[in-house]
Structure formats: structure tokens, C-alpha cells
Amino acid sequence: MASSSFGWGLRAAVAALGLATSGLAPASAADKGTIVVFVPSSTNPYIGQFQKGARDKAAGLGYTIKVIENNFNQAEQDSQVQQQLASGEAVAGYVWWPFENAAGLGSLRALSQSGAPVIVSNQYPIKGTEAYWTAYAGANDFLSGKTAAELLLDACAKAPIKCGKGAIIRFPAGVSAGDDRVTGFQDAVKGKLETIAVVPTAGFLEDEGYKVAAQIIPANKGVLTWLYTENDSIAGAATQAARENGLTPGKDILIVGGTCHGDSSHVVNGELVGTAIQSGYFEGWLAVQTLAKFVNTGKVEDGEVYVEAGPDAPPSDEGAPHKYNFLPNPPVGNSQQAYDQTKLWGRTAKELCNF
Amino acid sequence: MLALTQSTSPPGRSARIVPLALIAAAIVLLVLAARWTTPAFATVDNAFVIVRAASITGIVAIGMSFVTISGNLFALSASQLAALLAVIFALATQALGFAGGAAATLAIAAAAGIAQGLAITVIGNPIVTTLAFGAVFRGLASLVSGNGIVRIDSAAASWFGTARPLGIPTQSWAFAAIALCGWFLIRRARIGRLLVLSGANRAAAIASGLSVGAATVAAMTLLCLGSAIVAIFTVAQFAQAKADLFTGTDFDYIAAVLVGGIALRGGQGSPLQAAFGAVLIALLQNFMLLNGLSAGVRMTIVGGLVVVATCAFHLLQGRAR
């Protein structure tokens, strides 16, 4: 918390001196105003990528960007919102990635009352809050879970073992992305696979994933035929735990993370049944593009849109955004060739997954 | 003079054995209950899993026990330093190989321990000082890693992180060895005597000509070396490092020390108690996980155990004085 507070203070001091808050912003950036992005700490590489994408897109569109990080702490983020609003700074708009979706509602409402457009990102908005935000632009975690389920079901159809009972290792309790992915996954496997346990980890990375996988795999040896882990960092750790217990991933047990985030070696060597691209870079990029599209047109189309997963060209900056603008989750096969050939909006899977 | 001698004397044999006996009894009771109610619990595989789960927390908890015994309560920078050291180890291994990377990491860990120890000596508050250092360490980890994943490709590191000599993970061998070394250090070595006496009565230690500052520096250095070992093991196991590794693990280290019955006021306890505390918590976590208890319930129960253990040991230590 101290580091972020210090960072906030430093940025405020820099702003007070009239200096640019982003070294990446071009000289003309101030012409279109400042976009303020509230996000958790970029010590998480995915969030680091989100910021990079947001900065790149803002620079390209001629905006200055100011990123305010919290140290995975909603109370700190709430305080940052109050400080930002109290500064009276005129802004082009806000990008809001709450650390805790429900707990951050008060801050979201305060941002909306400022009159500036608010784009919510990463955390699927809570029903009934539509008046507090202009548009959502980011990942669809239901879709992420569904894509993972489809990869798993496809692998089950081809696998030497019969898929039956399995388990879900999910993100920590309270992380709404984890809830949504489990829901998307379970809806898709309903009647086809049996989930015997849903076990939360204490974190998002290999070390915490290994702690859980290393305990539930031996305890259910001979019973578990599949594992869904919500991202590839935890899935990679689960493959290690499986091997340590005499199981060959891809043969004796099918494992899917469903979101490329971490070491891709487990995908390309076939230990994971596949993955899907959820790009932190493009999530930040899309949030800024959505804000700019609203500023340009002054309107929002009703309903939702799944932005096309074209391999080469990124989506156009023209037109009005929809109320819900979902980042695509293109699946990636579990071979080196499939991995090398997959591209999204002009970037390779390697660029988007290994950061 | 008599009072001074009494207050700076290390605790008697019974005061040392009672906490260990209580933890051992708690472990036995928990094992029996788990064996009776949870068929998957009582297997050799699961026993290895529990010891393995206790190892990573336990190694840092052993280091933390030196800080507590020396009268400096706790350090709140252990997890952040481990994250920084993980990133440094990965970068150094890329450049120097596994041995060079490990040596560089241990050297930087020692420097971080000395710096924190000196700062605590000057500022006088270990909690505030290490909280600030923790922010510095996490920030540096973020800067050094460029908020990215630092990967390594080293066969030696991979062996170190994943091998199982005689069927036991390397982390568990290290845990056992470090616990024994820690016990020896506290009970038999001169530096251990300094830590205990500094923690037992700081004013008396100063009046006796002991360097309390040196004790603080030594305790912090030992803790940081523990963090370094855990960082090396973790990076070696997964072949990568990130700045947000070990997030939220400080409570686990402190819980192991408290459940182990090490006196909060300092001057009493042994690293073995912290090691047993880590094993007890790992047992409890495993038992709850196998029974499908939710994360909230697990957190509540472990927190409750810490509260009960802290109160019980505090009362026992009060009576033993």
C-alpha cells in the first residue's frame, strides 16, 4: 500500500509541476485531454500488459494517459478516486478496473457523477449498475470459461481415457472473474462432465496453484479425469503436480487453463488440451478505444458485441461503441504449429501470451 | 544483580519443552481425527504433500522465529523481499548459471537483512521499518522485472526445484536441515545466545555489554536468507519469476511462529517450534481442503487457531515466569 500511495503522491506532485504523467504520451497528446485509468498494481504482469495496451492506444489516438494503481486494495482505490475527483482536473474520461467489483460500486458512482464518461473494464459489471457507467470494454469471463469447456470436451472426445469426474481449481474467493469463469465452464459441461470439487487458490500464479493441485490430485487419484484451472499459470503447476503423482497430463488426466497466462510450453508440448488468448494488452487497448469512440460520437449502441477476432487488422476506431464490448477469446491448439500460427489483431500468440 | 541475572537467563527446560509437546500433541490429535474422518488423508503420498506444503512456509517461518526471539516481533517484508529475490535469482541465473545466480541471490539477501537490521536499530520499530522496506522491495521487483515474467532454462535449477531424493522433495530436505541448523544456532551457538538474551530483556542485555543492534542485524539477515532460499526453490520449480509472487504470504509465516508458541515478547522459543507450527497449519489446511471447506471457512479456522494458540501460549509463558 505504501508504494502505491507514494506513487500516487509522486504523480500528483509531478502533475502539480505541470509535467506530463506519461513518458509515452506524444507532444500533441494533450490536445484531446487526459484519460485516467484506475487499475490494480502492475506488479501483476497481466495488469502491466493492460497498462501498456492502454498507453499505446491512447498515444495513438492523441490522448494523455494517467494510470493510478492500487496495491490490490479496494479501500486504497476508493481513496484514489476521491483524491482524483477532489483535484477538479478536467478529464476526457475514466477507465475503471475495480479491485473488488461490488465493494467498488461507491467509487464507480462517484466517477459517473463527475459527468465524464466511465468505461468499466476487466470485471463484468454488476446488474443494476448500468446508470453508473458508459460502456463495458474487456474480457468476457463467462466466454473464457465456455471456451475452456469446449476445448476440454473436444479433447475428451479424442482422448484415450473416458472423461467423467473432474475438479475445478479456481481463483480466490471474491474475485468475480473467477466466479464468472466457473459459471461459464459449468454451464457448458452440464450433463457431460461431473464436477466433484471446486477449490479456490490463494492467488493466480504457479506457486499457489501448485499448493492446491498437489493436494487434490493425490487425494483423488484414479478418480479425477480432468481439471479446469481458470488460467494457464495454475494449469502449468497442475501438470507438474500430476506428473509427480505418476499421471501423464494429456493421457491419464486432461488439464485446461483456458487463458494463456504464463508458460506456453505446457500448451505446445500437449500437456494442456489447449488454451485461449485473453490478451491483457488488447484489453487495455480496447478500453481506451471504446472511450475514444464514445467521445467521438457521443452515443452508445444498446446491447453487446463480441469484437471480431481477426488475425491481422485490429478493429476500426470508427462508429459508436456498444454498451458491452467483449474482447475475443480465440482458442489455440496444443501444438507448436497451432501456437505459432495463431494471431489476433496483428500480434502473435507468443507476443500476447508470454509477457 | 541477581534480578538482572534471572531476567536475562534463558527459559528453563520445561518452558522450552512444554510448547513443543503441546504442538506435537495437537498434530497427533489432528492426524487421528483426520484419519478417522477422511480416507484420503492417511496415505504416504498425502503425508509427503503435507510436509512439502509446510516446507516453503516453514523455511521463512524459521527465519522469522529468529526475529521474534530477538525481541523484534515480526518483519512484514519477508514476502516482498522473496519476490524481489526471485526476480534477481532468475535474472542472475540467466547471466551466470544456477550456482552464480544462487550465490548472487544469497549475497543480496544478506545485504537486505543487514540494511533492515540497521534501520530497525536506528528507528526502533521493526513493524514500521519492515513495512516500509517491504514496499521498497515489491517496487524494486516490479522495476527489475519490467512487470514481466522472467524465465530461466537451467537443468541444475530444474533439478533443484523438482527432484525428490529418496522420494522426498528437495524443499522438504531443506526444511528439515534448516530447522535443525536453526535449533543448533539458538541452543548451541554464541549468536543464538545473543538473540535470546537480547529478546529476554533488552535493557539488561545492553547493561551487560551485549550488542542488541548486532542481534537485530543477525536476526534480520537470517530471515532474509530464508526468504532467499524460498525464492530460489520457487523459481527453480516453475522456471520463472514474477514481481507478484508470494503475495499475502506474510500472514502464513507469522501464523507458524505464533502457533509454534514462540514468545511474542522475545527471549523464548526455538526455530523448531516455528517449523512444527508450519507443519500443524499445513496439516489443518490439507484436512480442510480434502473435506471441501470453502476458502472463507479455511481462513476463519486458521485465524482462530492463531488467536487461540497465541492466547494459550501467552498465559502459559506468564505462569512459567
Automatic annotation (TrEMBL), chain A:
UniProt xrefs under CDD domains: PBP1_ABC_sugar_binding-like
Domain Periplasmic binding protein: 35-296
Keyword Translocase: no
Keywords (A to Z) from UniProt: Signal, Sugar transport, Transport
Pfam families the record matches: Peripla_BP_4
Keyword Disulfide bond: no
Record's subcellular location: Cell envelope
Signal sequence interval, chain numbering: 1-27
Chief location category: other
InterPro entries: Peripla_BP_I, SBP_2_dom
Protein family (similarity comment): Belongs to the bacterial solute-binding protein 2 family.
Name the UniProt record assigns to this protein: ABC-type sugar transport system substrate-binding protein
UniProtKB/TrEMBL annotation, chain B:
Residue ranges of the TM segments: 17-37, 49-69, 81-111, 118-137, 168-186, 206-239, 295-316
Classification via Pfam families: BPD_transp_2
Compartmental location: Cell membrane
Membrane-protein topology: Multi-pass membrane protein
InterPro entries listed in its UniProt record: ABC_transp_permease
Keywords from the named record: Cell membrane, Membrane, Sugar transport, Transmembrane, Transmembrane helix, Transport
Protein name: Simple sugar transport system permease protein/ribose transport system permease protein
Upper taxonomic lineage: Bacteria, Pseudomonadati, Pseudomonadota, Alphaproteobacteria, Hyphomicrobiales
